[in-house]
Amino acid sequence: MSPTRARQLPEGPAKVRAVRTMFDTIAPRYDLVNRIMTFGMDRGWRRRAVRSLALPPGARLMDLACGTGDLCEELKANGYRPIGVDLSFGMLREAHTTAPLIQGDATQLPLPPAAVDGVVSGFALRNFADLVAVFNELARVVRPAGRIALLDVAEPDNAILRAGHRVYFRHVVPRIGAALSDAEAYRYLPRSYAYLPPAPALLNELVAAGFDHVERRLLSGGVTQVITATRSHQ
Q1: What is the pTM of this model?
Q2: CATH assignment at residue 141
Q3: Contact yes or no for 176/37 (Cβ under 8 A)
């Protein structure tokens, strides 16, 4: 992150506190705002992420930063056994899933080693204070040959699409959030894209943590990305 961006966005423990407070605040209308600002496409993106796991029915899956449980329900619909983990009590309180839910920090997951067959996460990478620590935790709790699918925002490669996306994401989304939920939170969320490292560095961090077959796919013209990987046997 550049020095200018670093001054604008919280880091370390301050980021953890800010993210927890923000999601506690926006939890009651989080699903509504998501549907409106993505034109309902977020549902399709979650389906793509779950399908990309390619694990057998009955597999135990963790939804990391599960929020209100959309991915937990998608996992259940695909025959998996989900468990949700989220930092925000407010989001867990608003959850609409029957899956087991746990409050916890992604850098210190409340699970034993090799406890799950895979992990999904929706739009959370840029909200973690330490991505390397999170990836190391994923490698710890996912069994060898298990799979992960990490869904998050991206920017289109096409210059025209990228310009339009930036206008929408940086100017329209905050106005939607301000009208329906919390203005400050939805000013932060577009800016939080700056937390994500460049794609090659992000993929290399997963390899260093103990994953292989790491792939990145852009969805909907490049406004969203899904990163998949397999836990190595080492």
Answers
A1: 0.91
A2: 3.40.50.150
A3: yes
